[in-house]
Amino acid sequence: MAVATDDLDAQIATKAAELAALQRRRAESQDQAFVLQLQRVIPPGVMFRCADVLVHATLHPELAAALEVVGIRNARQLGMYFARLARRRPDALECAYRDDLGRHWQLRVTA
Q1: Residue 63: DSSP 8-state
Q2: How far apart are the C-alpha atoms of 62 and 73, rounded to whole Å?
Q3: In what order do the strands lie in the sheet with 93-99?
Q4: CA 38, CA 98: separation in Å to the nearest integer?
Q5: CA within 20 to 30 Å of 39's CA: 48, 98, 107, 110, which one?
Q6: Residue numbers of the domain that contains 10
Q7: C-beta of residue 64 within 8 angstroms of C-beta of residue 57
Q8: Checking DSSP bridges between strand 93-99 and strand 47-48, what pairing results, if any?
Q9: In this predicted model, which residue has the larger pLDDT, 24 or 103?
Q10: Which of 109, 110, 111, 107 lies closest to 42, judged by CA?
């Protein structure tokens, strides 16, 4: 019976690894789609704050939809998302500087 349990454990581990890979690819795809929508509203090189993005989302339904897809509902969540995105995609987004109003972000210019 131990052999069957080992096989089952191996199958579960394999499926868990496959699921994790699918989730990573989905997150990467959502990140890429979000950055593309953001670039349509805010050009690369222009600094912005999370509150600015939320205001733009009220005027641009595509950006609002992209925010919803990644689960953003407020400026704090967006700031945390930007921080994670800047670590995962430093080629796309960076924190330009921080002041009393918060972090000022900037999309990177890609060639």
Answers
A1: H
A2: 15
A3: 47-48, 102-107, 93-99
A4: 20
A5: 98
A6: 2-107
A7: yes
A8: unpaired
A9: 103
A10: 107
The β-bridge partners of 105 are 48, 95
Distances from the Cα of 73 to the Cα of 65, 66, 68, 78, angstroms: 11, 11, 7, 8
Q: What is the reported pTM?
A: 0.78
In the block, residue with structure tokens 């789609």: 33
| DSSP-derived 3-state class of residue 4 | helix
**R_g of the chain, CA atoms, integer Å:** 19
Q: How many CB atoms sit inside 10 A of residue 95's CB?
A: 15
Site of tokens 């199958």: 11
Compute CA distances 19 → 38, 54, 60, whole Å.
Answer: 28, 32, 33
Number of compact structural domains in the chain: 1
Q: Specify the 3-state DSSP secondary structure of 66.
A: helix
Classify 104 as helix, strand or coil. strand
User: Per-residue pLDDT tens for 44-97?
Assistant: 999 999 999 999 999 999 999 999 999 999 999 999 999 999 998 888 999 999
